[in-house]
Predict the 3D structure of the following.
Amino acid sequence: MGEEKVEVKITIPKSLYDKIKEEADNAGFTDIEEFIRFVLEQLVESGETGEELSPEDEEKVKERLRALGYID
Amino acid sequence: MIPRPHGGRLVNRVLTGKRREALLREAGELPSIEISYERLIDLMDIAYGAFSPLEGFMVQEDYLHVLYDMRLSNDLPWTIPVTLDVDPEEISSVKEGDDLALKYNGEIVAVMRIEEIYGWDKKEYARQVYKTTDKNHPGVAKTYHRKELLVGGEIDLLREPSHPLENRILWPIETRVLFREKKWRTIVAFQTRNVPHRGHEYVQKAALTFTDGLLIHPLIGWKKPGDYRDEVIFAAYEALIKYYYPKDVVVLAGLLMNMNYAGPREAIHHAIVRKNFGATHFIVGRDHAGVGDYYGPYEAWEIFDEFPDLGITPLFIREAFYCKKCGGMVNEKICPHSEEYRVKISGTKIRSMIREGKIPPEYMMRPEVARVILSFKDPFVH
């Protein structure tokens, strides 16, 4: 499960850092790094389903849902 | 927006077609072990992605991280170890790196690549997961009966035994497709192992007021004696939905998963699993997944403070009661009246009335629901 990690150094305005720190504290994150990682993951992942489903497989799923009365 | 699965990708380790046929042939030549019904359920939850991102039974690094930090070794929240226990003599002919066939009732159901074989301390497991070593706790008792070694490694599901309720069970890819078909963007999931009373209905409808859809998700799997049987729970919910819910806002689907009664840890586990099914919100009950007096009434709410990165929003809705003065179902946050006007909805009381063949009062349970339960000769697990 352990994934390789890379270190990234970025420079941001102090005012932005303070805002991020405040948000991280308010949201209950233990440190700012954990918060930034979480926000970036959400941003990068939004719009993708994370499902590997071919059109044929999706049709099979819908067939079962129809057979069980979940969809018309 | 339907959330991405936990860890970003929905795991699918169900083999089909020629790969499955080839591996089934090979598996016949492999050393094998027989697994219990509960481990079969874990196996299916892994294979169908309910336990995403797990690809198999945990290796020691993940096991220890989960036990002590409530996170996988890659830092993702995970609170209940998912492990395969074996006796040393069962696996005397295999070593790490070998393939092992897993059998249920004598039939090969999966192949596992053995990554690691390791020992475990059951008492420490109980202390960490259940917060007690008391063997009267049903989860602790089960832990103490498990075998001496754990085997970790990825699995591939080759075959699944038929289940009497298989047409009631949906897997994560199915609920995700279903929610998209229904064009729901926000879905609240409700975990249950009980027949619905008016308190449950109140909590579900309160949550549904703010979301597009409601997933009523009863657990199908091992339950303790005295719990309602799975088919009774389904029939009771079908009656409730038919008579008291709008048609297009509810999905009732079974979740094949073991119940651990691990209280706060299990509340987090239940939320993660529902995220994998595509839920955006999860109702966390008072003393969620608790048993006896082992956990404080709001411990299962407080633990969520430790997981701001869960990726599913918990909804803490207070327990409902009937207030004679308000004239309806309310909770302590919205009812100003004193105890003398409040009538608690007690699951225990309803259970004993059902046992006596009586229909509980309407403020406790819808009569249509009660009649369906009473139509079963024996509604309880023994």
